Amino acid sequence: MTRLSQSAKLVFIKLLHINWKMCVLLLFNLQVRDNPSGDYESMYRHMSKGSWTFSDQDHGWSVSDCTAEGLKCCLLLSMLPPEIVGKRWNLKGYMMRSISYFLFRQVQHTIALSKIFLTT
């Protein structure tokens, strides 16, 4: 019985590590990396770099609720050891892009601040 529980524990830990790594890859691959192409403001689009969407990057329409959840996941992942998460990701870059997105959405009518956030 003890041997079975130890082997089951090892299998569970291995699956947990694999699932964490898959979650991390999914989270980082779904963040929007660029703004829409062309003059997106004339087409009534907003900045979407650093946000998360309902589905994937190709969807392109940024959603603040999804971005908040993505940022929350990045913050939680930054507290986990690299043995669980996998290689050390540039979490600061992912978090800074999403924070810039939020600040842009709040202060988009302030020209000086929006220029600062568009460059990050």
From TrEMBL:
TM stretches of this protein: none
Keywords: Isomerase
Organism superkingdom: Eukaryota
One GO-annotated biological process of the protein: triterpenoid biosynthetic process
Family annotation (Gene3D superfamilies): 1.50.10.20
Gene Ontology MF terms: beta-amyrin synthase activity
Entry's EC annotation: 5.4.99.39
GO CC field: lipid droplet
Keyword Ribonucleoprotein: no
Keyword Isomerase on entry: yes
Name of the protein: Putative beta-amyrin synthase
Species the sequence originates in: Medicago truncatula (Barrel medic)
